[in-house]
Amino acid sequence: MAEKAYVITDLGPGDGGKGGVVESIANKVNARVILKEGGAQGSHGVVLSDGRKFNFSQWGCATFQGTPSYLTSRFVVSPIGLLREAAALLKVGVAHAFDLLSVSPFCICATPYHEVWSHLYEIALKDHPHGTVGTGVGKAFQMSKTNPDMTIYADMLTDGAKVAAVLKKQREFVSDKYGSLSDDDVLPEDREILASCKAALENDFALEDILRLILEAGAKVRLEDMQKVVSLPGNMVVERSHGVLTDSETGLKPHVSSLRTLPHFTDLSLRTHGYEGEIIHYGVHRAYSVRHGAGPLPTADPKLREQLLPGSCKDDNRWQGQVRVGPLDFVLINYALHACKLFTEFDGICVTWFDQIVKNGTWNCCTNYVLGDKVFLPYKLRNIDLLKSVKTPLKSFSIPTNRDEQTKLCRQVFETYTGLPVRMISFGPCKEDKEYMEV
To answer: Model pTM?
Structure first.
């Protein structure tokens, strides 16, 4: 039986800095495996002290230190994406990436037709974006619920006839859904995307290439039962994608994922598969607020972008949209904690990117919202439409020059306004830059 399972949860809309936290905790507790949940969409960045960098999507963030990864049934895998990521890992010194990966037979598989669907869905919204990473993970999950006969699971990846039949159904589904979409139905700047998507749906040779690549990935994938994975001795780290604010039910709608992102569902999965060990929950949040693309960010301040984002590897793109930053928002953090609280009590919080705050010399934080003569306190948030009108009064803290005093301030502020003990503070991108209170 495993000793402890450390579950890492983003307390924002994503982009919280989970990659470095997962790598550091896995190293600190000598984790024997990284369990992956979520999907093959965003990237969790890791920076090594020797200068190597990598944005992990489907392999766990402790891959550089040789820790194997397991894709649970709560992970939507991209078989073609696995091939690309393995090739990219080879370039940074990971020679046999598939030897460090095993997959649940019940993983849903995202295909290029889900990707096309997500692109067409987004451009059809014109200038009212929902926001998507654009890889089709959400659409693959959605299709598994509404059209299960059109879903490929990991245990089908070596059956060419089955995969081919399902791919054809997927292509027909998306073609029927968006076949009538015309140039007049999208923004002028998106007409090239529309043409590219339609060409992909009409190209029989593209279907053959997709089938070939999926089967190639299937031949490399090693299937493993989760019950066996969690029954082995040693510590585990659960690396989860997305953030609590994008949970499909309790997130800030309509800018949410198709997936459930509350850590309660991780606990259910572990217990259902026979895990009886201790589960430790750590929340993760940057020392400031960040959001990639559409969705509420009440403290957003365009003037802070250049100050806070350098080196964060976050760029604007058509699908996720513009990256916005602002002062730390404890109202949204506490809303996320409240959304989880019915089932999950966190054991601590990991603060990332505090080095950017140190460089600025001043730390601004929002602890409540004001609308007219009303004050919105943490966990009282109900109507996100109000977020467009609220004022976000700030508290300012001067950053000491001494590292011990910086640590003390960070702990004091987070512990005062969340009630959670701080377990880790990141003063830089590498695991050597992390300061631990208790892990």
So the answer is: 0.93
